[in-house]
Design brief:
Elements: E1 2-3, H1 7-20, E2 26-32, E3 37-43, E4 48-53, H2 56-75, H3 88-92
Parallel strand pairs: 1-4
Antiparallel strand pairs: 2-3, 3-4
Length: 103
């Protein structure tokens, strides 16, 4: 098991690992509240990549990685990932105005 220090390197190598063998690649998240640590693991039973952090800012980046993996799984491993961002889902949802009755 390899702990990768750089977030960008972890994302790049994880995407490469998924594209090489999408049928057997798994993505696991583990959060320990008592320690405040988040561990992300991507494996294909041959190679295992891990990223560990206790920084809240890096935990926010996990949403973007989730969107990347969802896109790869839904559209296939050959999709262009340049348009995938973590805020696409929030921008497309309609904005609700108030809770009262319509007048």
């Amino acid at each position: 098991m390899v702990y990768i220090v750089s977030w960008e390197e972890f994302v790049d190598r994880s995407v490469q690992l998924f594209r090489a063998d999408p049928e057997s690649t798994r993505y696991v998240m583990k959060y320990r509240h008592c320690d405040g640590k988040l561990v992300l693991k991507v494996t294909d039973n041959k190679e295992c990549l891990k990223f560990k952090t206790d920084q809240a800012q890096e935990a926010k980046k996990m949403e973007k990685l989730n969107n990347i993996f969802f896109t790869l799984m839904a559209r296939g491993p050959d999709v262009d990932l340049s348009e995938v961002t973590g805020k696409e889902q929030m921008e497309t949802q309609p904005v609700k105005k108030g809770r009262g009755r319509k007048q």
